[in-house]
Amino acid sequence: MLPKLEQEIRNLHNLVGNAIMEGRHIVVENGSCKFISGLSMWEGDAHAYDHDDQPYIEMVTSPNNINGELMGPIVNKANGMLVHDLAY
After folding, report:
1. What is the pLDDT of residues 31-52, one digit of tens each?
2. Dmax over Cα atoms in the chain, in whole Å?
3. pLDDT score at 19
């Protein structure tokens, strides 16, 4: 990533106060699906996820690509990890 872009993203979040940037990584990609396609298996609709005993990664895309609605996690269970795909 361009160092200037990374610094401006960090400055913006620090100014607005909407994200903790310390110790976090910023990944620039043209859509999260390309980034994770080889790393995971698609399980379908997050509302229907019922594998309580298995670890998972939930992609939170916000704002939503279809209607611009701000989104949050849906599954949000103890053994999961959230990855936030934010649009700038």
Report:
1. 666 666 766 677 778 888 888 7
2. 42
3. 84
CA-CA distance, 77 to 55, in Å (whole number)? 9
Contacting residues for 37 by C-beta, under 8 A, at least 6 apart: none
Strand partners, 83: 59
Is residue 60 within 8 Å of residue 71, measured between CB atoms?
yes
22-49: burial string, b at 16+ Cβ within 10 Å, e else:
eeeeeeeeeebeeeeeeeeeeeeeeeeb
Find where tokens 């690509």 sit: 65
Question: Where do the H-state alpha helices sit in 1-88?
Answer: 3-16, 32-36
Q: Tell me the pTM.
A: 0.55
What is the pLDDT averaged over residues 53-65? 81
